[in-house]
Automatic annotation (TrEMBL):
GO annotation, cellular component aspect: external side of plasma membrane
InterPro entries (alphabetical): Ig-like_dom, Ig-like_dom_sf, Ig-like_fold, Ig_Fc_receptor
Keywords associated with the record: Disulfide bond, Signal
Keyword Zinc: no
GO biological process, one term: cell surface receptor signaling pathway
Gene3D superfamilies xref list: Immunoglobulins (2.60.40.10)
Record domain Ig-like: where: 30-119, 121-175
DNA-binding keyword on record: no
Species per Swiss-Prot/TrEMBL record: Gambusia affinis
Superkingdom in the source lineage: Eukaryota
One Gene Ontology MF term: transmembrane signaling receptor activity
Coiled coil (residue ranges): none
Protein name (Swiss-Prot/TrEMBL): Ig-like domain-containing protein
Length: 203
């Protein structure tokens, strides 16, 4: 029994209860909880993510996007003592807490998926083209981001999959863009520290 804890007693502790012949299970690490004010970012906006560890205080929080450190603007890295950050990009986010020095880490929170609303694409007449010509060059433009896959429709029917088309046919033309989700990297087992010689699996 430790009556007065000192630095020499530092370490990871767990406990269990016993009453008569009945035993409880061993305690688990506390787990961080991540909440989002909304899961859809409006065009040009941002959302607030809040990380907490129930039942205790004094935590510094670490943030991750797709399993990698998420750099927090205004901090020295990916940490945020207040437990709240604002994000303006879609992605899969999670967090965990650290308390003390050298530090006790909570379990990672569950992932929260945030989606970003982007502006609708616009169809523009390519510079140099003229409506008086036999053919026109139409371009599908999306302001936000890159790596879009484009799809054209003519008179509400599928037409081409490209960002630009050249056509001599009259009709109602529209386009849309899709972008693939970023891959996520998962570490198994989900250890906070890895030492030389240990084996882990990346998925």
């Amino acid at each position: 029994m430790i009556n007065s804890a000192t630095e020499s007693h530092s370490g990871d502790y767990s406990c269990m209860g016993r009453r008569g012949y009945n035993f409880t299970g061993w305690t688990d690490k506390p787990k961080a909880t991540l909440k989002a004010e909304t899961r859809i970012i409006p065009a040009g906006g941002s959302v607030t993510l809040t990380c907490s560890v129930e039942g205790s205080t004094g935590w510094t929080f670490f943030w991750y996007e797709y399993g990698k450190y998420y750099y927090v603007v205004g901090s020295s890295g990916n940490t945020e003592p207040d437990g709240s950050i604002r994000v303006s990009e879609g992605g899969k986010y999670n967090c965990r807490g650290k308390r003390g020095d050298p530090g006790f880490y909570s379990e990672y929170s569950e992932y929260v998926t945030i989606q970003k609303t982007v502006s609708k694409p616009t169809v523009v007449l390519n510079p140099g083209s003229s409506l008086k010509e036999d053919k026109v060059n139409l371009v599908c433009r999306i302001q936000e981001g890159s790596y879009w896959t484009y799809e054209w429709r003519k008179n509400n029917l599928n037409y081409y999959q490209t960002s630009k088309i050249i056509t001599a046919d009259s009709g109602d033309y529209s386009c849309k863009g899709t972008t693939p989700n970023k891959p996520s990297l998962i570490l198994q087992p989900n250890w906070s520290q890895i030492y030389s010689g240990e084996k882990v699996t990346l998925r």
